[in-house]
Design brief:
1005 residues, alpha/beta
């Protein structure tokens, strides 16, 4: 774990407890602090309750304040340890220590023991011995010596037993490797410390016997037998007894392997230190952060063995260039030589270099004659490691594919540095510090284009240069290929190449130059996958865009979410997908293009691809239906003609979760509609669009709402499904109303009414009548609007759908208010309040109360209007649809002024203007700006009034919103000091008011 300040932490408990930060020892405090920290370090990552820490901290009965003292000790440790609150975390009733395995010697011991076990399972006994030797070398003395306490002492005893077991395992392996003579001194020392341990005594007997010292082996049996009888009153166990008998009769089974040959002597290095590093790119650009981290990791001291710093990243991300740059920077620190070998783990047309071949090349680079290099890998490994003993070499292992092929190439003694590059993070490579690199930040990729192409050429076309970098996905290989093509074609402009790259079907072909190709680089990563991952890679690329979560992935793959996550993580390991945050995955644009280039529309997988897309669309439809049921419980259910998806759904059990899901998935959902349209899945287009428009409407994303409405209508027309067409036309009508596109909305509403009538769908017919009334009202056709709205309310009462009736009544109230018929407007609004209250739709009552207040203002009932608006504000808490809240606030500011009240702080009128400017429909904005404009004029601020009325007029005129157009003109006439302009505005306003039938004494004041 590197702290926020970039410090490296390490804790040691295999001996006296120690804490280190960047090579400096930490002062950990007194006994209580050490015991608390030691107890947590014994079980890293596990939450230990305070009661357990109290038990560990005191030998006998703890004091009454023990729990408090433990908490104080933790607080003190957090101050002493860099980023201590991240290392020592509070979790529920206790604490846990959060560190990586490499930061704790006990965890590192466990890692090495497990590595040895794995090596034994694969008959790699020499490596197993090295792992166990490294594990035992971590010990600096008795575990947690000096800390004390019964709890810690008990844990220490258990760990010491693990140490002894590891020693026995290592000695057993050395015996199996023929090192009988070499292990005798170690065994005598251990037997002296543990004289009653029969396993060790038996190993010593075998070693002595194989060394030709049979009498001494039999003598050891006599010693242990005498001790056991004297100390415990028992004889040696049957296994040791059988061993004794076997030695007596010189059983061939005890002979063991031949005695190991002595390790080859170190070979002298050549007089001139070898350097086989590739040349450092003169135009290397960017990667400052990664280079700094790499150099920092490389210069940290290592006492246990060589330092290994590894770089992983997708193909073409510049791993080798970065490693070579670092190697040249560090070369002076390694005076005995700097070696490079390309292991060809991902090289076109080549097999990876074997460990034996690599060792041969490395040994020859060190000047070892060919006749001294052993034939077998084990011998070459031994010679390589012996030669490096006491030397300081830098070794760059480039393009590695797996950990097994690297292990024999690693030195075992400190002093050497190994730099490693790989497309995948090799998790089996213990002790390595990994640095992951992705695509370049935009600033660095722009700098790379300028460096490789020339600053003057980039300065001439800065926008094209930025687009070029974006189309290359900021991938260094792609950028270098693109700029190389431009250098070779001086007549090509950056804009011309950018235009060629915009065609996604040809982009990968364009990014090819000589032997270098983005497509070929990615294909090597793809070919290294197993068949299951290849299929998943191709299938996941069918996702239409944005982030992919495990539920969408599971739907595409036809699997459970955990299996899908496992496949995504495997693709992440080889950098074929990215992970912007936990649980989300995404493709780089170029990787997605490559994956999609693998599709064969006429091939064997075409049917499988179609099924995967349908599974994804089905999942999105079922999930959006579920979320809409939670968010809009009164929504009318309509048959879709599509089976319910069996894919696992996310948790959508309450409104907050459903809303969060819609917000996160909106980009993907909109893209899914486009995908369904492209694949001719029109039923999915319509049904998904219906669920999405509820959200877009609620969030005020009106342009998207309108575009989706048109797509849905076109799909329903292609299907010839009148029910879905009527629904789509109805949604398009709402979008047109919110967008101020009244003529288009009127046509949609008429078409929707005709469809509903043909179907005999009275509900939709009633809704269409209401919508027709609304559009006619906005367009200034008041008498026609009244006919439609009265018909709509009659239908809705007859059909007993009070929610719809309440909606139509609010439209009717608005019509009457615009017409100047305030008593009727008030009656309609009060009835809407009554219906919505009865339905429990209190979030909608506030907008009906605003309509009541609007009518009361027209009647001059300002006190009553103030009460209505305050009640509406209480219900809304200034939240909800921004346009509705803005209208309520603007009216309240207007009423305050009529009643002679002071301006509130903050100013309600300014808040209303801010809301409509940020996120509201243009028709609501025009209305609010006219209200505030009249208010500002009465307050004496003519300039503000003129600006507001001018903008309101621009909006209203563009929409044909006749009543607000008239009020805007009247406001301009009242506010301007130019008599001619005032007269012109007044005449235009009066002409409109006359057409609308709004008398002078019935107008807003």
């Amino acid at each position: 774990m590197t702290t926020a300040a970039g410090e490296q932490l390490r804790f040691n408990i295999l001996g006296p407890i120690e804490g280190w930060s960047n090579g400096a020892r930490l002062r950990l405090g007194g006994v209580i602090q050490e015991r608390v920290l030691a107890t947590l370090l014994l079980e890293p990552g596990k939450v230990l309750p305070v009661s357990r820490l109290v038990e560990a901290a005191w030998d006998d009965d703890p004091p009454a304040t023990a729990s408090h003292q433990v908490r104080k000790a933790v607080a003190d440790l957090r101050r002493r340890i860099p980023d201590g609150s991240e290392v020592l975390q509070t979790e529920g009733p206790g604490y846990r220590v959060v560190i990586e395995e490499s930061q704790n010697d006990l965890s590192e011991f466990g890692l090495l023991v497990r590595a040895a076990k794995a090596a034994v399972a694969e008959n790699r006994f020499t490596e197993a011995v090295e792992s166990l030797r490294g594990a035992l070398a971590l010990w600096r003395g008795p575990v947690l010596s000096g800390v004390g306490g019964p709890v810690i002492d008990a844990a220490a005893t258990s760990i010491e037993e693990r140490r002894l077991t590891a020693s026995e395992q290592m000695l057993e392996l050395r015996l199996a490797l023929g090192e009988a003579v070499e292990v005798i001194p170690d065994l005598r020392e251990l037997v002296g410390r543990h004289p009653l341990r029969e396993t060790l005594r038996g190993q010593l007997m075998i070693a002595l016997y194989r060394a030709g010292r049979q009498a001494e082996a039999l003598e050891e049996y006599g010693k242990v037998r005498e001790l056991l009888v004297e100390e415990l009153g028992v004889d040696p166990g049957p296994q040791l007894t059988r061993l004794y008998e076997g030695i007596l009769r010189e059983s061939p089974e005890l002979a063991g392997p031949p005695v190991a040959a002595p390790a080859p002597p170190p070979a002298p290095l050549p007089a001139e230190p070898p350097c086989t590093l590739p040349y450092d790119l003169a135009d290397f650009t960017g990667r400052d952060r990664e280079l700094g981290e790499l150099l920092r990791c490389a210069t940290e001291r290592s006492e246990q063995g060589p330092r290994i710093v590894a770089i992983d990243g997708m193909g073409g991300s510049g791993k080798t260039s970065l490693a070579v740059r670092a190697a040249h920077r560090l070369a002076d620190e390694y005076p005995d030589g700097q070696l490079h070998i390309d292991l060809r783990g991902y090289t076109p047309g080549d097999q990876p270099v074997s460990a034996g071949t690599a060792l041969d090349s490395l040994l020859r680079a060190l000047g070892i004659p060919g006749d001294r290099i052993p034939d077998e890998v084990a011998g070459r490994t031994a010679l390589w490691r012996a030669t490096l003993t006491g030397k300081r070499l830098l070794i760059l292992l480039d393009n590695a594919a797996d950990a097994d092929g690297i292990q024999p190439l690693l030195p075992v003694s400190p002093g050497c540095l190994v730099l490693l590059t790989s497309r995948a993070r090799l998790v089996d490579l213990d002790g390595a510090q990994w640095i992951s690199i992705g695509v370049m930040p935009p600033g660095e990729s722009a700098a790379l284009v300028a460096e490789t192409l020339g600053a003057a050429r980039v300065a001439a076309e800065p926008e094209a240069a930025a687009e070029l970098a974006r189309l290359c996905d900021h991938l260094p290989l792609a950028l270098r290929i693109a700029t190389a093509r431009l250098r070779n074609r001086p007549r090509w402009t950056l804009q011309y190449l950018a235009e060629r790259l915009r065609d996604e079907t040809r982009r990968l072909d364009e990014l090819s130059s000589g032997a270098r190709s983005v497509s070929a680089t990615l294909r090597l990563s793809y070919q290294a996958l197993d068949e299951e991952c290849r299929t998943a890679f191709r299938t996941l690329a069918l996702h239409p865009g944005g982030d992919i979560n495990v539920h969408a992935a599971g739907a595409l793959l036809g699997s459970g979410i955990w299996d899908a996550e496992d496949l995504l993580e495997r693709l992440l390991d080889v950098h074929l997908v990215q992970q912007p945050e936990i649980g989300l995955y995404t493709f780089h644009d170029l990787v997605r293009s490559f994956a999609q280039s693998l599709f064969d529309p006429a091939g064997d997988t075409a049917g499988e691809d179609g099924s995967a897309v349908e599974r994804l669309l089905g999942y999105y439809l079922t999930a959006t239906e579920t979320a809409c049921d939670v968010l809009y419980p009164g929504r009318r259910h309509r048959p879709t003609g599509i089976d319910h998806s069996t894919a696992e759904l996310p948790d959508l059990r309450d409104a907050e979760r459903a809303q969060d899901w819609f917000t996160r998935e909106q980009t993907a959902l909109l893209a899914a509609v486009t995908l369904a349209e492209r694949r001719g899945q029109d039923r999915y287009v319509v049904c998904l669009a219906r669920n999405l428009v509820f959200q877009l409407n609620a969030r005020g994303q009106l342009e998207e709402f309108g575009a989706l409405g048109r797509v849905s209508v076109a799909a329903a027309q292609r299907l010839g499904d009148l029910a879905l067409l009527g629904m789509s036309l109805s949604n398009l009508g709402v979008a047109c109303w919110r967008l101020g596109r009244f003529t288009e909305g009127l046509e949609a509403a008429r078409a929707g009414r005709d469809v509903a009538a043909r179907l005999g769908d009275r509900h939709t017919e009633a809704h269409s009548e209401s919508t027709l009334g609304q559009f006619n009202s906005l367009l200034g056709n008041f008498p026609e609007a009244l006919v439609h709205l009265e018909r709509a309310t009659a239908y809705e009462r007859e059909l007993a759908i009070p929610r719809a009736e309440a909606d139509s009544l609010t439209l009717l109230s608005t019509l009457y208010e615009q017409w100047g018929r305030y008593e009727e407007a008030k009656a309609a609004a009060l009835r809407a309040v009554e219906l919505r209250s009865g339905l429990g739709q209190f979030e909608s009552v506030f907008s009906a109360l605003t309509d009541v207040a609007f009518a009361q203002i027209g009647l001059g009932e300002y006190e009553e209007a103030a009460r209505s608006l305050e009640k509406a504000r209480e219900l809304s808490a200034d939240e909800g649809d921004p346009g509705d809240v803005a209208l309520m606030l603007a009216l309240l500011a207007d009423v305050d002024e009529h009643l002679g009240r002071p301006i509130r702080v903050p100013d309600l009128a300014e808040r209303a203007l801010g809301l409509v400017a940020a996120n509201a429909s243009p028709l609501r904005r025009a209305k609010v700006e006219n209200i505030v404009g009249r208010l500002r004029r009465r307050q004496g601020d003519r300039q503000a009034a003129l600006a507001l009325h001018a903008h309101a007029h621009e909006l209203a005129f563009g929409m044909s919103y006749r009543i607000e157009e008239a009020y805007a003109l009247a406001g301009l006439a009242d506010g301007t000091e130019d008599a001619d302009a005032a007269a012109r505005h007044r005449a235009e306003a009066e002409e409109l008011f006359a057409k609308l039938g709004v008398a002078v004494d019935r107008r807003r004041r």
